[in-house]
Design brief:
Blueprint (H helix, E strand, L loop, with lengths): L10 E3 L1 H11 L6 H21 L5 E3 L4 H5 L8 H4 L9
Parallel strand pairs: 1-2
């Protein structure tokens, strides 16, 4: 947020938004891609703050993450929900 020039008044992330980012936009053990995706959201919000003024504020939720990052990169499949004999999940 600091790198994009945002304050706590401009942007707030809900727990659902962070969960949605992790499940739909990152697939790694570390947090490098998560940090990148949060940075992408912050930069897009920073553009809106510049256009609409410093009073612009938004709450990032699980529902509006797609508005900022586009189509989900990873989808949960049935293979993750059920454990079947002979099925390998990588």
């Amino acid at each position: 947020m600091e790198q994009a020039g945002l304050t706590d008044k401009n942007i707030k992330f809900s727990d659902d938004a962070i969960t949605s980012l992790i499940r739909s936009y990152t697939r790694e053990a570390g947090v490098r891609n998560l940090e990148r995706e949060i940075g992408n959201v912050c930069r897009k919000v920073a553009r809106k703050v510049v256009k609409e003024g410093e009073s612009y504020s938004i709450n990032i939720t699980g529902e509006n993450v797609n508005d900022f990052l586009g189509v989900t990169k990873f989808r949960d499949t049935l293979a993750h929900e059920k454990s079947e004999v002979g099925l390998v999940t990588g």
